[in-house]
Amino acid sequence: MIGFWLLLTLPTLAAATDTVLVAKKSQIEAVDPDTTKGQHMESANDTTRIKQKFTIIFRTNGGTAVPAITQDYGSPVVVPANPTRKGYIFMGWSREIPVTMPAENLIIWAKWQEIQPEPEPNPDPGLELTPI
Question: Residues of CATH 2.60.40.4270 domain(s) within the chain?
Fold first, then answer.
């Protein structure tokens, strides 16, 4: 079966959890690899496991870039360094970064709080300063 990937037949899909599918090799059929992009196979004894890669994209809303994370479902996710942005304090992400890769692609947005400038002190307390 060189050039082909293995996918589960319909009767085995009911037993699937998330996107990691497990079936006995007797329940597997061959399909064209172009229809299974992003998936790869692992075999052990008489079962075959199909894993799919997913991506977490970080949108920094004007902050420094944070690279996307693409890896297998269920694998540990290493939390990236926080972005920075001039004049702002990073307040976290729009959602919690998962501990393990979920069975879906995610887009997570940076939250920022603008730094308010400190008012300049009055050099002569007896003199009233009026804004121009």
Answer: 54-114
